[in-house]
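## retry 2 of 3
previous attempt timed out at serialization; input unchanged, resubmitting
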Amino acid sequence: MTPSLPQLSVVIPALDATAQLPACLASLEDAKPGEIILVDGGSTDGTVALAESRGVHVIACPRGRGLQLRTGGEAARGEWLLFLHADTHLSAGWAQEAAAFMAEPGNRERAAVFRFALDDPADQARRVERLANWRARRLGLPYGDQGLLLRRDFYRDLGGFKPLPLMEDVELVRRIGRRRLAFLDSQAATSAERYRRGGWWGRPARNVCLLGAYFLGLPPRLLARLYG
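## retry succeeded, writing output
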């Protein structure tokens, strides 16, 4: 039986997400979170109307995922926050794992992420998943498409997401630190469209190059233009 999570606020940044948002919201329904906040960056495809028809609280915000995440985090009222991308849906059993994590007193100053997955049956997708999950666990660098679950007070003590156009997820998890990250077994299954479009080898290679450039000090605004 799926537990109810009234103490949880879910924050979803979105931009023209009508194709992926229904699956994202459907994966949250049984857990009955206290609130779902969609922070819209100027969608023109009906994303806002779709979200409102599902009872989601919509906040308008200038485009930029870091800024959208920060805006949603500031508006959230729940004791716990779950940041989730609009093109990502959580697998069955995620709510049980999340509830167990939230109930453990030792996790009041820790964060949890889900196991990365892609919604494509291709063998290439499995390879990308293995590499992404290795990076997340070994290097302590999960990306935002793995979700992020943490207590609201802990999030605010950290200073929250920075309003960056790219690498806002890496910047925050580096402040959290590898020792304060927990890795849940449930999957966060993300749309594989950008890998199909950018290439199963090309897209991961570009991501690695951008991550390296970020660590070398290139400004996120420049990296965002390169990311496309």
